[in-house]
Amino acid sequence: MWSSGDQTYDVAVVGGGIIGLATAREFLKRHPGLRLIVLEKEDILAAHQTGHNSGVLHAGIYYAPGSLKAQACVQGRSEAIRFCDEHGIKYELCGKLIVALDDTEVPRLMNLWDRAQANGVPDVELVDGDRLREIEPFATGVKAIWSPQTGIVSWSEVARAYAADVREWGGEIRMGAPVSRFESLLTETVVYVDRPDGEQDEIRARYVVTCGGLYSDKLAAMSDPEADDEMKIVPFRGDYYTLRPEKRHLVRGMIYPVPDPEFPFLGVHFTRLINGEVWAGPNAVLAFRREGYKRWDFNFNELSETLSFPGFMKLAGKYWKTGLTEMYRDYVKSAYVSELKRYLPEIEASDLLPGPSGVRAQALRRDGTLVDDFMIQHGNRIAHVRNAPSPAATSSLVIARMIVDDVLDRADLSPSRMYSPAIAAAIGW
Question: What is the average pLDDT across 392-408?
Fold first, then answer.
């Protein structure tokens, strides 16, 4: 719905996924008098990465000690649980096993164990094969990390609860509002929003925060054209299978691999969802469009941009063998099943039904290195969330606090500086 009324705000947040909504909520929590708007290009909230994942409530095991991910995840998990308790959102601490299949994987497992200790992950245990099978009777392996505080939740439901707080606290959320450009003026930033009738609305804000996920690089380039040359989002699609209902008993919680250092993604695993389903996967293959959830979803311009980016060619040169293996498993179910059977020997192809897909926004530098940590980039009265991969949902309340802290260090948004529409019009702001 479009309004012809006043369109001047203190803060505009671009993106109605979990990070954008958490950030909007945090602004209003700090300053209830803020005039704030969230602009979302889709007709529903949390339409992409937030709504296309397995809903894991991460404990913080994988992340490099001292990184933003490590700092935000452990605290974020506690805050997410508290938020769910306060808002009546169902979650379950079903636990996760990270399994070393044989002795060659044990050193890498022990590296993860050291990370878990350094990051202060609660209640983790190092277990042998017998204890592993007590936890997950149908799994196999020689050693594992058991994280009983890892859980599952619907992040879409959490995002909707954030949105409810935003609205209750006086914020506005506008759907079907794609942003096409920014204009930096002396005291404000103008956000140009394309309207369904072909015209544009001008949203004026004292500060803008973009949380664009799969289009985060494009939004950053709207305020800094060189940003797109430095770092680009490369979309990787992950396909899941789901276990037939009569086979769900094979997995009690989560069964994960030890990450392969030869591949920048986690690898296939088993996850029990909050609705009782069990997902197997995902793989990781290049998506042919940024929001391409099917194998043959294709956008020529987006794919051309990916393939012509120097960083992608360097990445492909390093991981081409593993990448080809992932593509083969994507098209050949028996190869996918063979990988799953390494962790759950009783699984058969007939036990697996086609499941959903997600697309991960992977930030890639021009030199071919992956941006592993959260990244927030500030410009003139504008901040861009350039990279927010997993565990961003788990960490969303903490990331929001980081963003708002940074913004308030750069801009005075205190209540004494907030103007009513009438005063703003009178002083020409």
Answer: 97
pLDDT tens-digit readout, 198-211:
899 999 999 999 99
> 281 - beta bridge partners?
269
Q: Whose structure tokens read 């990070």?
A: 19
Q: Are 179 and 222 in contact (CB under 8 A)?
A: yes
| 264 closest CA partner among 305, 316, 331, 333 | 316
The structure tokens 């209003």 sit at 28
In angstroms, rounded to a whole number, what is the distance separating the alpha carbons of residues 324 and 280? 20
Q: Cβ–Cβ contacts within 10 Å for residue 134, how many?
A: 10
Is pTM, for the whole model, over 0.70?
yes
Tens-digit pLDDT profile for residues 69-92:
999 999 999 999 999 999 999 999
Q: Strands 91-92 and 269-272: what pairing? A: unpaired
9 forms beta bridges with 205
Would you tell me the crossing angle of helices 333-341 and 310-331 to the nearest 10 degrees? 90
Tell the residue number behind the tokens 């959903």, with chain if given: 356
Complete DSSP assignment for 330-362: HH-HHHHHHHHHTT-TT--GGGEEEEEEEEEEE
Residues 5-16: what's their mean pLDDT? 89
The residue type of 76 is G
Domains of the chain: 1-55+154-224+379-429 (3.50.50.60), 231-246+260-370 (3.30.9)
* CB 65, CB 71: distance < 8 Å: no
Confirm if 274 and 152 have CB atoms less than 8 A apart.
Answer: yes
Neighbours of 323 (CB within 10 A): 17
Going by C-alpha positions, the residue among 224, 222, 261, 208 that lies closest to residue 372 is 261
Closest CA to 218 of 194, 182, 184: 182
Of 251-260, 294-303, 320-329, which range is least confident? 320-329
3-state secondary structure of 85: helix
